Amino acid sequence: MTPTDALKQFDRFHDWYLDVIATSKEGGAKTPNMLTLGLYDQDQRATVTFCGVTRASFIDGGLLNIVNAIELLQPDNAAYPAAMQLLKNSPHFGKHHGNHIAYVFSTIGAEIAIEFDSIEIESTPTR
Q: What string of H, E and C letters represents the secondary structure of 68-112?
């Protein structure tokens, strides 16, 4: 399943609350290369893990963060230049660049740009 298809299964997390942002390392990496977002809506909780992260950067955010959409961007997307500008704030380690650019658009709070290779989504009911 492509990252776009995975996000579509959850309506790109429109109007979900973002309450967890965590980094971790996999595969013997010396620096964090995974970014996990914890999200919830009325009926379910999901963790979205971006794997093979080469850069990520955040703006704004606080105790209340509501996602408008998580989208994969291509160079022809109107938001792509803004995402790339935000990613310039993140140090890049190594020679590899991620295969995808995702952007967390906010209704309220945090906006996040992520350069990554793959995505994993797990969800559970909250009731």
A: EEEEEECCCCCCHHHHHHHHCCCCCCCCCCCCEEEEEEEEECCEE
The whole-angstrom separation of Cα 39 and Cα 123 is 9
Q: What is the pLDDT of residues 85-94, one digit of tens each?
A: 999 989 887 7
- For residue 19, CA distances in Å to 41, 48, 64 come to 11, 12, 8
From the DSSP assignment, how many helices (H) and strands (E) are in the chain?
Answer: 2, 8
At 16-25, the pLDDT tens digits run 999 999 999 9
